[in-house]
Amino acid sequence: MPGPLDGIRIVDFSVALTGPLCAGMLVDQGADCVKVEQSPVGDLIRWLGTSVEGISSMFQVANRGKRSVALDLRQDEGRAIALDLVAGADVVVQNFRPGVADRLGVAYADVAAVNPDVVYADITGFGPTGPASGRRVYDTAIQAASGLAASQTGINDVQPRLLKQLVADKITAYTACQAVTAALLARANGQGGQHLELAMLDACIAFLFVDGADHEILLDGDHSGPQCVAANNTPLELADGFACIAVPNDTEFHGVAAAFGVDSSDPDLATIRDRARNREKAMAVHRAVRAASPSVTVAEAEAALEANGVPFGIVRAVDEVAADPQVLANAVFEEHDHPVVGRVRQHRPPARFHGTPAALRERSAPTLGQHTDEVVAETGRGDRLADLRAAGVIG
C-alpha cells in the first residue's frame, strides 16, 4: 500500500542529513520525491561513514525511495529544469545557507512564482538573519549553541559533551517533517501554500527546553536542583552488563529497593512528598541499590525488576539491537539486496498506519543521477538529453 501521503510530490534540493531525512520520512509515508544533486560528488553524505559506490549507510536510510537527478543549478538551463520540477510539486525542501537559494534561483519567491500553492520548507542552521546566520553549519555547532552539549554534564562534571550522533540534524528533520505535514493540512483546508522557515538552533532549543531547562522556565522557582530531572540518571552496573531504570513514583522507588534487597520501610520514605522532604535518606537507598547491583546478573535483575514493577531497560550495544526479542516482535528491521551495495538491513517506517498502510515503494537509495534521464524527460526535454549532458547541465 502506498501510505497516507500517496500523491504528494516533493522536490528535495537539500544535502547532508536534516533536509534529506525530513523529505525521506515523507517518502516513507508514501510521497514521491525527486532529489536534485550536483555532479560529480552529489550529496556529501553519500561518502560519509560506511560507503559503497557513493551509497553510505546514512544516505541509504535518509534517501531510500527517492529519484536522483544530477542537475547544475548554476546554469540557466539547469535552473529552468528545476523550476519545471517545482511547478508540479506539493513540497520543496532546501537547507542552503541564507542567500544561496536566491543566487541559484530556487528561493521561495522563485518557486512561488511558478507554484503559489507549494509548501516550501526553508531549513537553516542559525536562522535567516542575525549575527550567526551566514555561518557554515553542521550538527556539532548546533549542539554547542543550543545548550545540548552543556546539558550532558552532571555533578562534578563540567566538561561539555557532544551526543555521539547527529542529534541536532535529526531533531530538526523530525520538526521539519511535522511542520510540512501541518502546512499540507492547512492547504487541504483551503489556506493555500506557504513558506516555512526553520532554524536548527530553534528546533534544538525547543527540544532541550521541554525537560532540560528547569531553571529557565519557572524563573522564580527553587533552583537548587539540576536543570533537568534526568540529569543524574546513570546506568546501573550489574555483574555482566548494565540496566537503566527510572523510579519517580512510590511503587517504583520501593520496588527497586526490594529488587536489590535494600530496606526502604522508613516512614520518612513512604511517599514522593516524604522523599522530597528527606532527600538524604532517599539518596541513601539509591546508593545502597547501586552498591548491591554489581553482584546481580542481568538475568536476575530482569526478573527482579519486572516482578517489582520497576521500569527498566537492559543496555544493548548497537550491534545487539536488531536481535532483541522485543525488536523482533515489533518487526522493526527488514533486509533486501541493493543493486549496488549488496545486502542492506534497515528499519521500517516506525509509525504504522492501519487505515492507510505505508510500505516502501522502493527500498534502495538511488545512485547519483540514477533517474536523471527519466525525470528530465518528464519536463519535456527527452529529445535534448545528449545536448544537456554535453553542456554539463545534467550529469
Give the termini distance in whole angstroms. Answer: 33 Å
Helix content: 25-40%
CATH topology of the largest domain, what is it called? Rossmann fold
CATH class descriptor of the largest domain: Alpha Beta
Rg estimate, integer Å: 25 Å
Strand order, main sheet: write it out: 5-2-1-6-7-8
Number of helices: 16
Low-confidence stretches: none
CATH architecture of the largest domain: 3-Layer(aba) Sandwich
Shape: elongated
Mean pLDDT: 94
Structural class: alpha/beta
Assess the beta-strand content as a share of residues: 5-15%
* Major beta sheet summary: 6 strands, parallel
Order of helices and strands: EHEEEHEHEHHEHHEHHEEHHHHEHEEHH
**Annotation, overall tally of beta strands:** 13
Structural description of this entry:
The chain is of the alpha/beta class. The protein folds into two domains: 9-208 and 328-390, Crotonobetainyl-coa:carnitine coa-transferase, domain 1 (Rossmann fold, 3-Layer(aba) Sandwich), CATH 3.40.50; 236-314, no CATH class. The chain is built from 16 helices and 13 strands. The chain has a six-stranded parallel sheet, sandwiched between helices. Strands 9-10-11 form a three-stranded antiparallel sheet, covered by helices on one side. 35% of the residues are buried.
